[in-house]
Design a protein that fits this description.
Elements lengths: L1 H24 L4 H20 L2 H5 L2 H29 L16 H8 L5 E6 L5 H14 L3 E6 L5 H6 L8 E5 L2 E5 L4 H12 L5 E5 L16 H9 L3 E5 L11 E7 L7 H12 L3 E5 L9 H5 L3 E3 L3 E4 L15 E5 L13 E2 L6 E3 L8 E9 L3 E4 L2 H7 L9 E2 L3 E9 L6 E7 L7 H4 L4 H12 L22 H30 L1
Parallel strand pairs: 1-2, 5-6, 5-7, 7-8, 8-18
Antiparallel strand pairs: 1-3, 3-4, 9-13, 10-15, 11-12, 11-14, 14-17, 15-16, 17-18
Helix pairs in contact: 1-2, 1-4
Length: 505
């Protein structure tokens, strides 16, 4: 009889342990199933061997059984709550810079995954905590993504297979494609996922030969940062000299005309027209005079480029060290390029007005504004006077704000299935090295490129580096904190302890 009671107790204990294992692992694996089966079998066997009717009359056993039943119910409830929360989570990031939240672009990429992604993170157990947190965030938005942390010292064969040399390296795999990154930053992981899931590589060509900034230049007016951002999205980038070409290469998906200082030859304009009419895409970034504005050419594409200079008289730009000829923009339209940019700012150093023209009876053409300056801005017509004197004064002839600085054009191509797409911006400096990283300038440029490439799922606000928040104190404040935390508070606590001791005595 005593033996069967011990078997009954052991069976109930195994059932309890099995439920606890399941609540921890959140999956029915062989361990939890084996424990539950063994516990159930032992419990049933013991109850059969014992005289159940007499056993139920035992008050001690009834109390113990009630307690065991309560414990089982609590564990079962906890298991169900854990199961529910694992699949229906609610998160709140209270940091001002959204440090613990994924960016809009990353979430878009994850939610649009059509292929399975496997991530191997090579790290030691002591350093795996932050990596687990980051990969769990990614996993939360897509069940197509799975990950595993591998200690390269315990599994050197896998480290050699993927040519991993350093701790912290991540390998992203998708249908035979492989991408290795040296860290677990959100931007690196997102870009790697884009690279292994994209079919083929589209090419972006920057026009050259007219005084444009070079994509290989690290100078302030170069476009090296823009080139790097495009490459990170798994696109190809090259410079294109049209003067010695008979046509724009067929593998070029987007032509970027980045602030030409001189006018294009008629032959080059004809090549551009033929390219666009056959379903090509182009980004025109045209600066105010004396640069070439392509005013007449862009009128043929239903865009009106103003011969003026946009001035921001609000004074808000001074907070960021910007002069009045660097208009600040925080108002965006509902166009897909900018619809997710609410709450962020962009800057356009020395810009001209760009607005849609009337399309007439051509219903196949869509021309939309993208962004506007504030109501306290205006467009100066007498640009030479501003350059000569350095003074800006609004006159009755000047166009009053808000001022449109960019337009997007979409129309049916004459040949092929692709849509003809154009984006025209009244400034090229916003995407140059000096300003590419300012606020959301880089995001705006890449959103334009993504729309022109018909990759709308990449249009968003991209991951940013974590913000470093420093606490700066004066010497007096530093001494005050020292005296309060190191001297005053410990002395008070010690004095209270002595007082309590004396009173008790």
């Amino acid at each position: 009889m005593k033996l069967y009671k011990w078997i009954l107790t052991g069976g109930l204990a195994l059932l309890l342990v099995g439920l606890i294992v399941y609540s921890i692992m959140n999956v029915w694996d062989w361990k939890s199933i084996l424990l539950l089966v063994a516990g159930g079998a032992a419990t049933i066997f013991a109850l059969v061997q014992l005289d159940i009717k007499n056993l139920l009359k035992n008050r001690r056993l009834i109390y113990g059984g009630n307690m065991a039943l309560i414990v089982l119910l609590v564990v079962a409830i906890l298991g169900l709550v854990n199961f529910f929360l694992a699949r229906h989570t609610w998160r709140l990031d209270t940091t001002s810079s959204r440090t613990f939240s994924l960016s809009d672009q990353t979430i878009k990429v994850l939610k649009n995954l059509k292929k399975d992604i496997q991530i191997y993170a090579f790290a030691k157990d002591i350093n795996k905590g932050p990596i687990e947190d980051k990969l769990n965030e990614f996993r939360h938005y897509s069940r197509k993504l799975s990950w595993e942390i591998i200690d390269p010292d315990e599994k050197p064969a896998m480290a050699r297979q993927y040519k991993v040399k350093d701790y912290g390296n991540l390998v992203i795999l998708c249908e035979g494609k492989e991408e290795q990154i040296p860290n677990f930053s959100e931007e690196s992981i997102t870009n790697a996922i884009i690279k292994v899931t994209r079919e083929g590589r589209k090419k972006v060509a920057f026009l050259t030969g007219h005084g444009e900034g070079s994509i290989n230049s690290a100078d302030r007016d170069g476009f090296e940062n823009a080139k790097k951002a495009i490459l990170e999205q798994n696109y190809e980038v090259e410079e294109l000299l049209l003067a010695d070409k008979d046509s724009i290469p067929a593998d070029v998906y987007v032509v970027v005309v980045a602030g030409p200082k001189k006018n294009l030859f008629d032959k080059e304009l004809n090549l551009l027209t033929n390219y666009l009419e056959n379903g090509g895409s182009a980004l025109f970034m045209v600066d105010p005079r004396p640069s070439a504005g392509l005013v007449s050419y862009l009128q043929n594409w239903y865009v009106d480029v103003g011969d003026n200079l946009v001035i921001d008289a609000s004074g808000f730009g001074r907070i960021f060290g910007a002069s009045p000829d660097v208009p600040l923009v925080s108002t965006y339209t509902s166009h897909s390029i900018v619809k997710d940019m609410g709450g962020v700012m962009t800057f356009f150093p020395v810009a001209r007005r760009v607005k849609p023209r009337d399309t007439g009876d051509n219903y196949n053409v869509t021309v939309e504004e993208l962004l506007q300056t504030g109501p306290q801005s205006f467009a100066v017509k007498n640009v030479e006077e501003v350059y000569r004197t350095g003074r800006v004064a609004q006159s009755a002839a000047d166009e009053r704000g808000p001022i449109s600085l960019a337009c997007a054009v979409s129309l049916d191509a004459k040949k092929g299935e692709r849509k003809t797409r154009l984006v025209v911006v009244g400034d090229s400096d916003f995407a140059a090295n000096a300003y590419f990283g300012n606020q959301a300038n880089g995001d705006l440029f890449m959103n334009m490129v993504s729309w022109l490439l018909a990759d709308e799922d990449l249009i968003s606000i991209r991951p940013k580096d974590p913000e470093i928040r420093m606490v700066n104190m004066t010497p007096g404040q530093t001494k005050t904190v020292f005296w309060l935390t190191v001297i005053v508070l410990p002395v008070i606590a010690f004095g209270v302890a002595i007082l309590v001791f004396v009173r008790r005595k």
